[in-house]
Structures are given as structure tokens and as C-alpha cells.
Design goal:
The complex is a heterodimer of chains A (about 130) and B (about 160).
Chain A: H1 16-68, E1 74-79, E2 83-86, E3 91-94, E4 97-100, E5 108-110, E6 113-119, E7 123-126
Antiparallel strand pairs in A: 1-6, 2-3, 2-5, 3-4, 6-7
Chain B: H1 11-61, E1 64-65, E2 76-77, E3 80-82, E4 85-86, H2 88-95, H3 99-105, E5 112-119, E6 126-129, E7 138-146, E8 150-158
Antiparallel strand pairs in B: 1-2, 3-4, 5-6, 5-8, 7-8
Chain lengths: ~130, ~160
């Protein structure tokens, strides 16, 4: 077996294998650091995207439910993102996400917070 | 000069240890990636399920819009006379609709669907939509309705 460190006359020298091992470790950690920073930022982005998509889907589904239940139905939801409701196209927009509902609604530009939905033949929103 | 063997490590052993460590590290790094893929699959399934439910609810629980709609002026598809009781005239108009238009009005967007009703009165049976493709993820919603007697309404939604 080769010694990791040599001493005596050759003190201060390291074997070629050790240099190779250190080199591999450095390369590897370099790659890991770059990958971690890319993955870290994409993970944050993915989390935000999921939250927006979930919020969008929950809200659009609730609009459909309130409409389906008929006149006089009422619901309340906490929106954790701003949302826009487009009656023409029956679509909710949260961030860059679009979710579809089945209902007659009014157009609305809603900010994050409690939203009350009322069905008076057409689903309306109040905050 | 004689080397002192104390405190020395075999370079090959160190290399093997490093390789094992690196392999473990790579495997562990993959776990968050796998979780993300699973989360995307779950979300996609959840979206399909919610869209299917709201389409089925609209058809079976509402009159649609306008209330006395026909194939030429329908905005929201509803086949019900009353909740879970299907209206024959609306079913007739529904069957005249273009599949793409019906899919958009049912807010199914990127998903395909097939809606079928199987009644005790066989003359009332009908199906609307595209054939279900094999090896696809399919959401099936089944409800008991009244249409010429007791009937099973099934909605298949798939990518």
C-alpha cells in the first residue's frame, strides 16, 4: 500500500493518488454547489408555482360549486394570491395560471384575502 | 530513510471511501427531484378530478344557460330538469353539439371526455364524446339519475 503522506526526506510531499482524490472531491463539490444553487432556485419557483396553481384551482372550483348549487348559495374562501375573474371565457387567473369554471359571473379583480361569493343568478364577489 | 507507518492511510482505501461517499451523495440528491415529480403528478390528477366533478355537476344539477337553451345558443351545458332528473329535450340538444364546443363549455380544456347514460329503458341510452383510449389515466364519475327510469350516468375524463 502507498502511504498517504510521506515523511522524512520527502516531507511535505503527497502521493499522486492523494492529489487525484482531492482533485475529484473538489470537482464533485463544485458540481454539487452549482447544481444545488440551480435546484434551490427552481425549488422555490416550483413551490410558488404550485401554490398559485392550487389557489387558482380551488377558487375556480368554488365558483363552479356556488353556481351549481343555485340561486342563494354562498361561500367564503381565503385567497392567498391576487386573482382575476374573467366572465368572458369563464376563467380565473392567478399569477401566470389559468383555471376554468362553469358559471355565469361578473368580472372581478380580487386581492389576496377573504372573498365572499354569492349566487344571485350570476356569481358575484365581495371582499 | 525508514518511513513511520503510524498515522498513515492507504490511498486506495481513501479513494474507495470517497467513491462510496460520492455515490451516496448522488442518490440522496435525487430524492427531492423524485418528490417534485410526484407532486406534479398529484397536481395533474387533482386538476383532472376537480374539472371532472364540476362538469358532471353542471350537467346533472343545473338547467344550463340560458335556462331553455338549444344547441345554437347554449352557453352553459346543464341537462337537468331538476337535480339528477334529466330533461329529454336538453339531452336531444346536447347530442347535437359539436364535441369541441361541448368540451370547452364543460371547462374540460385539455382533457377529452365521454359521457354516457345507461337507463333501465334501453331506448333512452346515449353516449357523447370520444372513445376512451387505452393506457391513459382516466377519471370516472358515476351517479344515479332519472332518465326514463333509473339510469346510470358516467363521465370519463382522460388526457
Amino acid at each position: 500500500m502507498f502511504p498517504l503522506f510521506k515523511s522524512g526526506k520527502n516531507s511535505g510531499q503527497v502521493s499522486v493518488e492523494t492529489l487525484v482524490a482531492v482533485f475529484i472531491v473538489l470537482i464533485f463539490f463544485g458540481i454539487v454547489l452549482v447544481q444545488a444553487s440551480i435546484f434551490g432556485s427552481s425549488e422555490v419557483l416550483a413551490k410558488e408555482t404550485f401554490e398559485e396553481q392550487n389557489s387558482c384551482l380551488k377558487f375556480s372550483h368554488l365558483i363552479s360549486q356556488v353556481y351549481t348549487e343555485g340561486k342563494g348559495s354562498h361561500a367564503e374562501i381565503y385567497l392567498d394570491h391576487n386573482a382575476q375573474v374573467y366572465s368572458n371565457g369563464s376563467v380565473v387567473r392567478v399569477g401566470d395560471h389559468f383555471c376554468y369554471f362553469i358559471a355565469k359571473t361578473i368580472d372581478a379583480n380580487l386581492v389576496s384575502g377573504n372573498i365572499i361569493l354569492d349566487n344571485n343568478g350570476v356569481v358575484g364577489f365581495s371582499q | 530513510m525508514k518511513l513511520n507507518s503510524k498515522g498513515q492511510v492507504s490511498s486506495y482505501d481513501v479513494l474507495v471511501a470517497i467513491i462510496i461517499f460520492l455515490m451516496m451523495f448522488i442518490v440522496l440528491k435525487q430524492i427531492p427531484m423524485n418528490n417534485l415529480t410526484e407532486a406534479i403528478d398529484d397536481f395533474s390528477y387533482n386538476e383532472m378530478r376537480l374539472y371532472s366533478q364540476q362538469a358532471m355537476d353542471s350537467m346533472l344539477k343545473t338547467n344550463g344557460y340560458p335556462t331553455n337553451w338549444a344547441a345554437g345558443d347554449v352557453e352553459i351545458i346543464g341537462l337537468a330538469q331538476k337535480q339528477n332528473i334529466l330533461d329529454e329535450e336538453k339531452v336531444t340538444e346536447f347530442l347535437l353539439l359539436d364535441y369541441g364546443d361541448a368540451r370547452n363549455m364543460l371547462a374540460l380544456g385539455k382533457y377529452d371526455f365521454n359521457f354516457l347514460v345507461d337507463s333501465v329503458d334501453d331506448s333512452k341510452d346515449f353516449s357523447f364524446g370520444v372513445n376512451i383510449q387505452e393506457n391513459k389515466e382516466v377519471i370516472v364519475i358515476e351517479r344515479v339519475v332519472y332518465y326514463g327510469g333509473e339510469a346510470n350516468a358516467k363521465l370519463y375524463v382522460f388526457k
